[in-house]
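Quick one: structure for this chain?
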Amino acid sequence: MVFGGRQQEAVERLRGGADREELRAEGTTAAVIDASFTVEPGQIFVVMGLSGSGKSTLLRMLNGLLEPTSGHVKFEGEDLTALAPRELREVRARKISMVFQHFALFPHRSVMENAAYGLEVQGVPRAEREERAVEALRLAGLEGWEKSFPDELSGGMQQRVGLARALATDADLLLMDESFSALDPLIRRDMQDQLLELQKTLKKTIVFITHDLNEAMRLGDNIAVMRDGRIVQIGSAEDILVTPANDYVASFTQDVDRSRVLSARAIMAEPGEGYAMADAPAQVHEDTPIAELFLPCSTSAIPVAVVDDEGELVGVVPRERLLAVLGEPTKTVEDNAAASDLTEDEPAKKVNAGA
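Got it. Here's what it folds into:
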């Protein structure tokens, strides 16, 4: 996505190796550059980056508010960039909902009327839209507040109304642009909990924009890290924390509490010969945060058993492995690739997080 004059020329220059700063000096802004990714149904896909990285521009291309200078946006196999304006408005009204950072509520409408607004735009009869709005408000934790007005609600409650409005339309895709960043930390975490709880039941496809790494790692099934308009890494929270693609990504992860992000699955080893689950000090699910392994690992020299949803043994976590993972400095993918090519005359240079 390029803003300014001579856009197609700018695209060709980017393909030829020109960088963002060269174009900016000439009055052209390359907001998003060569961003390719797929969001699977039912997934929370988080796009994370600092201010100016291009993440909000990327989100607006996904629902057609901005048309890409080059490339395509496909939703359920349909190319949104090829739709006529009327067809695109129909898709936005029925299949894609957006939850904004600053709530975007109508102050003169009740909570229920705000929650039902997307259905009103669709032309849904009043009785049906009120019924669906009431149910959406219940899911968002606002049962009993239907007749109130936005100025009677706290910031967190207002954001719940915005979420309920998106849910009421029963859209297939939710786009959330820094939706919780204006909230106080405790309310923000409460909203994250609410979203995760709703997702267990509704299994919506969600693209969530944030500049906060902890929020990204808490919410995202997959995370895309953006820098200067480009996606520099896509992966799970564990992928990004354990094997950051470069020093830029590593600098984001240096202050993350690894014990709360990494799971037993990420650090488990193969069971040794003769290992018996009956002798293990504990059995934990593979999704268990490693913070919860400290106690069982400290009480026995026998590794903790790691099981899957069916209770089958899939790995073990020895005490030494837990301590080693928590104490290891982060290596980037580039470090690992370089190390594999070293000769005896080229000693490895370890890059620590934040270097």
